[in-house]
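Re: the request from the purification team.
They wanted to know what the chain is likely to look like in 3D before they choose a buffer screen. I agreed to run a prediction and write the result into the notebook, where they can find it.
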Amino acid sequence: SSSFFQSENKKLLYSAAKLEGIEEKDLEIVSLGGLKAGGVSIHHGRTWHGSGKNKSKDLPRRGLGLHFVPAEVRFTKDARKSKLWRNYVPDKKEEEN
């Protein structure tokens, strides 16, 4: 994690922020470089995040993503383009029932 937003990768971060209308000066970069194996990071779903290479030679990195969505949320048809959300978008037949 200490190298994810360093040097060349930071340019990518700044470029993505600019596309979202966010100024470099408004970014807050927080490092979890001290996070030990088995540790956990919990953050807002819209937080840009990432990590460096898995340094273990024999253990895979595991990840668990939980997405909480308010019950009143209705997905737009554009959500069908998302691998994550497409199964939650009713097709026209379901909407009519």
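For the purification team: The two ends are 48 Å apart (CA to CA).
Please add any questions underneath this entry.
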